Amino acid sequence: MKMTSIRTALGGAVLAMTLGGGAFATECIAPADAGGGWDFTCRQIGKLLYDLKLVDQPVQVTNMAGAGGGVAYTHVVTERNEDADLIVAASSATTTRLAQNAYAGMTADQVRFVGAIGGDPGVIVVAKDSPFQTLGDLVEAIKADPASVTFAGGSAAGGFDHLKPLMVLKAAGFTDFAKVKYIGLDGGAEAITQTIGGFTQAMTGDMSEISGFIKSGDVRALAVLTAEPVPGFEQIPTAKSQGFDVEVVNWRGLYVPKGISDDAFNAWAEKLQTVADSAEWKQIMADNGLAPFTKVGADFQGWIDGVVADTAQLSKDIGVIQ
Questions:
Q1: Res 9 pLDDT > 70
Q2: Listed residues 242, 258, 291: the one ending a domain
Q3: What is the CATH number of the domain that holds 199?
Q4: DSSP for 196-250?
Q5: Phi, psi at 226, each rounded to 5°
Q6: Is 322 part of a structural domain of the chain?
């Protein structure tokens, strides 16, 4: 299907913009329905690109749901490979699915990842009366008896929430991942309820899902999985500060078609960095529970390559993929 007919079929464009005077309107694809995280990324970044005068006209947003981002990814790779006027919202879910071959044979090297400019911090919490006082206590209990601890999370087995505690355990030298018990539930709220009720010993999720429960004292956070403490939650120690070299955030960012020029890629990287540095973006992060997490340009692409490789290996270790 040609680009024009796809836009028409989707109910198409909200608005259009040009990239520095380019001949074609630039589009941001959100690989899901309106209202989700990818839609948020397109609309907020797109708005600031225009507000900060980095583009000439407002950004067009197209929602292209399907296959957990796979429909949009395939569309970009097969039909828009050289479209320098296209940006696509991405997150940790994108790289996890690519690592697990969930996009029907598509691979992470078929696009170029521009950058991430914010993240929802990963966090591991326990009920307020849990005997585990530190992340180390929890890790040592699992090492001694993996069956003694069950995690609840808001993703399916093998999904991003499942992988978070396994990354911590891997950093601690534990490798028998298949013995670690995990229950995948329908969202973070249901997962936290299981832990508060004592049905599971810990919950793994994102800060935005459980910040209210932390503030109310219903749960205790053993660790936040960021390089530095999260603003507003400075009392929660990082995993790194407790000796576990793990940084896991559900980052929000963009990728572009692989076939665009280096100059076009670098131009998008510069624009995204400008958005990240703006007071307006910092306010959006504060308003929406996001933590600073900025990796832009070639450095981000290198980081993505490592994340995909590590996720693929961990997914093999727990039997999600062969």
A1: no
A2: 242
A3: 3.40.190.10
A4: HTTSSSEEEEEHHHHHHHHHHTSEEEEEE-SSSPPTT-TTSPBTGGGT-----EE
A5: -125, 165
A6: no
C-alpha to C-alpha distance for 91 and 70, rounded to whole angstroms:
13
Residue with tokens 């832009």: 296
The residue that leads in pLDDT, 19 or 243, is 243
We report the CATH number of the domain holding residue 271 as 3.40.190.150
Q: What are residue 294's DSSP bridge partners?
A: 117
CA distance 93 to 73: 13
List the beta bridge partners of residue 116.
Answer: 253, 295
pLDDT tens for each residue of 160-211: 899 999 999 999 999 999 999 999 987 788 899 999 999 999 999 988 888 8
For 54, the domain range is 3-119+249-317
226 with 311, same domain: the answer is no
State pLDDT tens for residues 232-273. 889 999 999 999 999 899 999 999 999 999 999 999 999 999
CA 304 to chain CA mean position, Å: 11
Quick one: pLDDT at residue 231? 81
